[in-house]
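This part of the workshop introduces the protein records we will be handling. Getting from the letters to the tokens is the skill we practise here. An example says more than a description, so a record of this kind follows:
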Amino acid sequence: MHRRHFLTSLALTLPALAATGAQADNREGIHSGAYYPVRVLGQGQSTRIDHFIVTDGRQALSIHWRSGAALYDEDRIDLSGVGGGIGALFRTPFRSRWVQAQPLGTVEIDRGRNRLIARVEEVGPLLGAAATVAAGRYSWDLPGRLAPGGAPAGGDPAGALRVEEDGRLLVSLPQMVAQV
């Protein structure tokens, strides 16, 4: 392929991709990356989540927030495999990140205390990790990083936990949908 043709094609394609993303954001009034409450609907119950805890039964790490988290529509094309570094300019969809991440544990939901509880073998290596929670077609990048916290009680089974190569935790809540 000739360099000029490639650059011209790229210059015409990028605005179209950006416009498509903007239309997707606006179809429900959602703006990717803006802060929205972490709300999920499952088993006929709506729950606002404002606390994420990871525990190994001996100690716990947690993230607590009050003002929502960065929300992303995950119903989009995966451009991460596009060559020339172009794919790195776009956020990789959660489903692709999930497939590449390593299984780490299970996740429960404690509706009474508005929190997610992840159960793992050992929490020590997770200190300072960031987390992303996905439900249905949306995901939230939780604000903050895991810090020492109190050990939780239990909750209802809700999903699974994986860890990406860079240490970010991915929480999948397959039986729930986001309420935005």
User: Anything to note?
Assistant: The two ends are 44 Å apart (CA to CA). DSSP finds two helices and 14 strands in the chain. Helices lie at 3-26, 94-100. Residues 3-26 form the longest helix (24 residues).
